[in-house]
Predict the 3D structure of the following.
Amino acid sequence: MSDHRPQRRARLLDSVARQRAESILVSFLPNVRYLCGFTGSNGLLLITPKTAILFTDPRYEIQAAQECDCEVKIVKGSPWPAAATEARRRHVPRLALEADKVSFDQWSAFASQLGKKVSLVPVRELVEALRAVKSQDEIAAIRRSVQVCSKAFTQTVRKIRPGMAEFEVAAELDHRMRMLGAEAPAFETIVASGPRTALPHARPGAGTLRPNQLLLVDMGASVAGYSSDMTRVLHIGHPGTRARALYHAVLEAQLAAISAVRPGATCGDVDNAARRSLRKAKLDRYFTHSTGHGLGLEIHEAPRVAARTETRLQPGMVITIEPGVYLEEFGGVRIEDTVLVTETGVEVLTPTTKEFLVIPS
Ligand code: ZN
Ligand code: ZN
């Protein structure tokens, strides 16, 4: 992935120029990683037309030298004053700063460190827009992540039995993801059973799996920094009519949204396809979140696949499609795949079956 970084920085400076600045100081760490490779927890990246310099502290001296393809400056304490000094020394006239990622206090302190000769230009989502369209290497990493996630799920499903606690299932999924090559789960694994499946972001609890209940698993792996995201709903024992109807309505909505994914379609079109399908089943009012999100170095990143979102899909975007329906006291069903926007349409990357899986009770 390192060979793409100078190109990424050059493309970023093009979008910085459209905002009437010529240099940028990047502070949001996933963006810093994307642009220079640095994975540490403290770093600022100054990019000018002539150079790229990472400012970090002595803890990262060895690591930064190994990871980065740019100049590295080690500074004790906060890197902000050092970045300000460098910008002044280089006579940068207009410096862009990620306005939505910096606190008001940070902005004010940095502006005074820069002095009067360097003016700060607020910019938003410039790196995020570049990150939304993935390179072949990034897509390859996401494919590996998806494989690890799905394999860990399949291996774990065989071991799930009534009487297990939700957190035991989550621990098993996390363990298997790591054993299969994930550096970590991409987010805290969600395992919820029974009426708790109606909480879209339920934390795994000590409650045990009981017969005749829904079981929802939402999980993802992080591989080489890149995320996958998948939700499946199973049933402990044979599902009744209501659970089956709910499952099939959500599955239809998910398939309808996937069919709407193609280059040029807006994210709003995709969201609407899921909502329209659920409306036919009179379930649309229980679909309380958006249809999906981009993913990559972060589990939630651009584009948002939500109602009335005008962002147009482009080949190379990787998004989730995850409609869900949540009925209080009964439970919820969400089905989520990670999908790639291709030149001609869509490729569903998640290989896991979308049959309504039954755990013997
Ligand atoms: Zn998910
Ligand atoms: Zn998701």
Remarks:
- The first helix runs from residue 5 to 18.
- The pocket of zinc ion (ligand 1) is lined by residues 218, 229, 231, 336 (CB under 6 Å).
- The two ends are 47 Å apart (CA to CA).
- The mean pLDDT is 97.
